[in-house]
Every structure is written in C-alpha cells, then in structure tokens.
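hey team, just a heads up i'm posting the complex here instead of the shared drive bc the drive is being weird again. everything in one block, sequence lines first with there labels, then the predicted structure for the whole assembly after. its two chains so it's a bit long, scroll down
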Amino acid sequence: MHPVAIIGVGWSGFRPVTPDVSYKELIYEAAVRAYADAGVDPRRDVDSFVTVSEDFHEGTSIFDEYVPDQIGGAQRPVHTITGDGLHGLAAAAMQILTGRFRVVVVEGHSKASNILTLPHITAYAMDPILNRPLRANPLAVAGLEACRYMHESGTTREQCAAVVVKNRRNALRNPAAAFGADLRTEDVLVSEAVASPLARLEISDHADGAIVLVLADAETAGRLSPRPAWIRGIGWANDSPSLESRSWARAVYAEQAAAMAYKMAGIGNPAEEIQFAEVDDTYAYKELQHLEALGLCSLGRAGPLTVEGATAPDGCLPINVSGGSLGVGHLLEASGLARVLEVVLQLRGQAGSRQLGDVYTGLAQSWRGVPTTSGAVAVLSNQLGGRES
Amino acid sequence: MSMRRVAVVGAGMTRFVRRAMETPKELAWHAARMALDSCGLTLKDVGGVCIGSAPDAFDGVHMKGEYLSDGSGAWGKPVMRSYVGGGTGVFLGPHGWYHVASGLFDVVLVVAEEKMSSFHPHAQAAFLTIFDHTTERPLEPNLLWIFALEMNRYMQTYGISKRDIAQVAVKNKRNAADHPCAMLGEASITVEDVLNSEVLAWPVQRLDVSPVSDGAVAIVMAAEGVAERITDRPVWVQGVGWNLDTAYWTNRDLAYPEYVERAARMAYEMAGVREPRKEIHIVEPYDPFDYKELHHLEGLLLADRGKAPELTAQGVTGRGGAMPVCPSGGLLGVGNPIAAAGLMKVAELFWQLRGEAGARQVPGTPERGLAQAWGDLMQVGTVTILGTQRPA
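-- predicted structure starts here --
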C-alpha cells in the first residue's frame, strides 16, 4: 500500500452531556483544531470530506445534509459512510490511494445525550421480520453473546471485571475522558445486573463529542507534518447480520478485518509486531474477545493476561491506554476514531501523563455494537514501513 | 500520479414496482445475482461490496447497511455503505471506483436497494425528518412544497411554461414503455394528460412526479487487467464527481443547481471532457420531477441556462435525437426507488454503451455517457461518466 498519513487530529469533548453546545458546534470545534494541527485550510487545501453517521442516531433523515458548513466542506466533495469512523477512515484512505486526492478529511461525532431511549433506537437495527417481534432489548443480545464467549473461551466474570478496572483507571490520566474512576473488581461484580452476565459497570456509557482527522498522501504529509502517523494497513469485514447464523463466541469480523489490515501492513506476527492497541470495549468482555480475534493472544488468554497486568499501561501489551469506551465514553460512530486518535497521540509522543515509552506501531479496532457484526482495524506507525526502515 | 483504471463489467436490475413482495434483502440479492450472472462471476470472485441506500426511514431499519449486507452478498466480506440522499445511486459510481482504483480491491459488487412502500400510505412522512429540527420541521414542510418552490423559481426566472416542462414527462414515460423493468411506461401519454393531472402543490401535478417504487440495481466493477479477463466489452469509468452544498437551502439560487455544475466539472476534468455537448453521447440526468431533468441538463453544462426546454421541444433529447436524455425512461417512467433509481442510470449507460439496451437502444454507436443524481436538501450533485474507451 502506498503510504497515507494522518497529519492532523482534532477533537471536542468527551462529556456525558453537552447541553451548552449543538452537534454542529462540537464538530466545528474538532474541525478547527484538526485543521490547525495539520496546517491546512479546509476551503483551499482539502480535496474531499467523509462524514460517518447513522440517521436514527441523529434523528434526521439524510443527515449528511447538515455536515458541510461546520467542516468547511460546503460546495466541495462531501459524502457519508454509514459505518464506524474507521470505515470512514478507510474510505478517505482509498480516495487518496487513487492518486486523485491529496488531502481528505474524515469526521465522526456523537450527540448521544440527545437520545433519550437509545436501546429503543438500537432495537430498530434488529431484523424487522424475524427478530423485532421478539422485542429483544439489545443489551439482552449482548448478554447472550457474553455467555457464549465466556463459555467457549473459559473467561471468567472476574477477568471481564478486570478490564473495567483497568480502562476506567486509565481514563483518569486522559483529560478528555468522561468516565475515569478508581474501582475494584468487586465494585464491578456487585454493580446492578443488567442482562446476565453483564453488570452495569461492564457496559460503556455514552459520551458526546466529535473527532476530525486530516489524511494526506506521502508528499503532502512530508511537506506539512513533522510527525505523520502512517496508515500501514486497514481492513474491515462483516459476519452475518442475522442473529441466527452468526458466530456467538468468536469475533469473526475482527479476525477478517485484522487479516486484511495485517496483509496490507506486512505483519506476520501481530503479537510480536503490534506494541499497543486501542480496541473496542463497548462491553468489558468485548475487549477480551477482540484481543483474541486480533491475534494478540490465543483464545482464552486475554482474561488471564488482563488480570496479570499485561494489558496495563506498564504491561507488555498496553490496551486502551486512553480508557477505551468504558473510560472515555462510547461515542457512537466516532468510537473508532477515538481509538485512532489515541494511537496517533501515542505515536506522536503527545499523550501526556499516559504516554507509553518508545512506541512506533499501534493498532486501532472498532465494532459497531449490537446487533451488528461489523468491524474494522487500522495499523498505524510513526515510521514508514515499520521500525526497520 | 498514474491511476488504476476501473471498468463496469456487469449489471442487473429488478423490476421497479409498488409493494414488492420481496424483503429489502431479497430485492438486493436479486439484483446482485443478476449482475454477477451477467458477467459469469460468483461471490467467490468478489473482494468487497459497496452498498447504497437512501434514508434508513424508508426501510424502517436502523443501520440499514448492516441489515442489507448479507442480501448484498457481503457475508464475510468487507462492506461499506455510502450515502448522499437522492444522489446515492449515482454516487456508487465514485464509491465503487475508489474501492478499485485505490488498489485495495480487484472486483467489487455494487448494490443499491430501496423499498419505499414500507411507508404507508406514502414516504412523505419520512421526508419530514430531512428538515432542520429547529427552524423548519415545526412548519411540517412537505418535499413537494419545496420542489414546487424550486420549479416555480425556475419557470419564473427563464419564462418557462408548464407545457414546456410537461414534455419531459411525456418523453420519459414513452421511453419507459420499452423498458422491461419499468413501472410507469406509457406509450400513448400526451402533454394534455400531464397538464390535466391532479394538482399536488402548484405547479407540481401528479404526472410531473416520479412514482414511489421498490427495487434494486447492482453492477460489478473491476480493475484494469481483471476487467478484460471477465468480459471483452468492459465499460470504463472515465470520470466521477460529487459536490455537497450548504445545509441552508433557503439561501440558495433555486433557479440553478450550482452543486451539479461543480460535480460535473470535477467529472469532466477527470474524463478529459472539454466540450461536454459534443463529447457526451447519452445523458441520464436525475428526473424525479420533470423540471429537474431540465434543471440538471443546464447544471451539467449540456444546455444553456433556461434553454433545456427548447432542446426537449426540438427533439434533441429524444431517443433518436442528437443528445438522447433518459433513453431508459428515467425515474418518471421506470420508477423511483431512490438509490436504485440512481444506479439504474449508471447501469443504463453500461447497457447502452454495449448495445444491449434492446428496444430502448439509442441509434449509432455511442461512446460516452453521463449519469447524474441529486439529493439531500436539494444540495448534492453526483456524476458518473462511463465510456467504451479505456481512459488514457
């Protein structure tokens, strides 16, 4: 893959409620920061804009209508990807790879606090003929999946709770995170049962916020950015959208997305070559399931590794140093971009008190949440072609 | 920088109907299967899938791209749904193109589906939620009203009559009589029929408007080197363009679609088209309303401002004219399952340029065609230019 770099990042948030600003103001703030960071003028230097959103989350049909003004994209090429922010990142990268675009912007945001009954919205993503009449709450579906994963991998509730403790503690060192907390495993286990085996504290809460990333081709990146974060590989995949015919134990979508990204990045042994990762942790068990799907450890090992501290910031494989969705807050379609944001900040050495030492290759992974089996993976590096080059 | 060239190698289309018995997934699969069969491929040959579908509200499904993914052939594959309202179907040209031109995929299956009859009695109820929630939605605006405003403005600016515009509906519905998938083909329709049809929101009348339809269309796109192995008649993507105007439609010049011009200029530049009126041989502009075909021909720089009606009156835009426009029958005649209707226009170019359009084949040997769509709050223009010549 020809090199594509992230040369600018901007964000706004992340807070549980933002009654003082509209979604447009959140996006504007993130965009202004990203353009200043990249040193570009959106009206002059940006060739194309990608926005990620889902209409039902926005409460507006054809939501991309309301995007161009605040990102500087009016009367310019702008389009929507209805996917996670990482899908939008892939769309932007593909445009640059065609050779016809030099600078492309991707935007994602969450105004989850505007949604009074999010599970009711999510329920509309269930198959309308086969599943919706069952009136299954999405959290109940997640609970079933957690059961199956724990059963097949031998993962325990204590191991899942350790993910919560780690991520919310990590969030204390992230000034942008909404849900930093110093918890004990016991606190998680005794929190209210929501959909067995899921307890309240194992479920990420939502936050509002916006993230804008500026991508560029190698020549432009070399000219504009002292610290480009190179996209070495990117992949995305879906398992079945049908509840009845998907894998309930394995995150097949993450396995396939990772295979695509690793192939592009030339990564043969991810457990050796990936130094740190930001992975989806919408529910605590998902972080463990995803670590195994990404090939960062074998089936059933993610839980013990977490309890042993291997995935802590000072461990051998730091995971979700940002705090992840459990600590930062789940940002709807922007969640994948939040994972990318942290990887970029770490690769640039700009992660403040949570900075990892001497990192050059990181991974960001997303999942679109119940009831989807849609995931994406990006491998980023601050050195072209990995450390050797 | 040299670009990887991309071709369309197969296409498929369901009938456009009201109240299809099939689920949205099934409609998508029918079109996908036809497109694959048309070029002798199976899902094993497909690297990735591109889905296009307009608002989720139509199918009544949140995350409609996820829901449509298996029906679109994407189980276990990379799938990405793009979306620019009414412009979505033609945007699948650029969307599929950048998947392949990037080098990430050799063959992609591109699927557009819309099932608008899920809304009963009419999808207008969903359209209310496209308006600004604070400034516009309390007025309970209807899409027909704002199109009526725009149509009025276009007529008033250039002194165009209802009769001038009705000719477009007549031409397209007559063309559609030759389309096996068409919903409203009508060989004997007259201008008087249009002018005497029920008034919906003046000056918009029943026969000025495309019908609410269900349907799906799919195409297969492949990279140079691969495309030639799949078919000896690949149709090349020569240019793509898209453009999104401000959200504030109330501040816009309603007589002229500037975003369409900007999208067209982007596509012409890529295709190396300097004189579009000479170099574009077939046009499939977006015609959900009859005045929009005229509006869009002007935005595409294929007619002078306010002069597109004359081209229609002179027969220039007829199927046998110098510049055939909507030889398929367009949305007015074939139907308007929104994203599918847009991709139908791209598929029509594919069939016409290969000489496979049957009774609706334009005469001669056209070498280049342009498909265009429009959407969002009257603010997006999307353009795909296909041609028989491999781009330089």
